[in-house]
User: Fold these one by one.
Assistant:
Number 1:
Amino acid sequence: MNPLVEFCVSNLAMGAQSVFEALEKDPNVEVLEYGCLSFCTRCSESLYAVVEGDVVEGATPEELLQNIYTAIENNPMFSSYEF
């Protein structure tokens, strides 16, 4: 089972699209996009994704990507994964 990372389509349009595309290329990560994840305030203020049910944010796409991988590595279910 691979870690699940979910994105809101509105947040993709705000700058997270490159993160989504980078994660799509990683065969060890499952990536989904939804019309809305119901984090509208957060969505309008920062880049974010939901990683295994937890919100992960970043000020830039690069920071968001790094924070997503850090969240996956810190999750006990996936701590043995090599990214």
Note: The chain has a mean pLDDT of 92.
Number 2:
Amino acid sequence: MFLYIYAAIVGMTVNLGHMWSIAETFNGLMTILNLIAVFLLSVVVIKLVKEYFNG
């Protein structure tokens, strides 16, 4: 709960440009993690697609 209160206080006091930069950074980090997960799961997807189309 204190983390949420701290985040609200920081959000109210920090420059808006800095907040956008922080938000974009975290969005980029989430994108990188998702791309890694998609890459790791692509082997499974290829296997399942081959099984589906081969009967």
Note: The helical segments are 2-13, 16-54.
Number 3:
Amino acid sequence: MEKMKKEKLVESLKNHTFEPSGHLADFHVAGFAYYDGLDVIDELTLGKPVSLVAEPDNPYDPEAVAIFYRDKKLGYIPKDKNSLFSTLLYFGHSDLFESRIQFVNKESHPERQFRVVVKIKDNRK
């Protein structure tokens, strides 16, 4: 019986094809303490979708990308990770991304309470 399981496993591994990860980036939400996150903090759980919105007219960073949960601004993609997202969003490619809450620790400093993961949407289906 055990030998049969091993043979099936080996056969399934032989037929496996490589599939690259859709992971683009992950980061803490910058500026969380200064925006609307406290209004929805109890709703921000693992896997909740968030939206990325370019802010080319932001007076502090023309490549700024805000992170929203529904209509509440949570903060921003950190400045050292926002350039690619800013460019793609500016040119209308928001449909490329799937962004979700990846990490929650409400006991941490507000700048470290939430992480977001951004993946490329799989449109092959």
Note: The helical segments are 2-14, 37-40, 83-90.
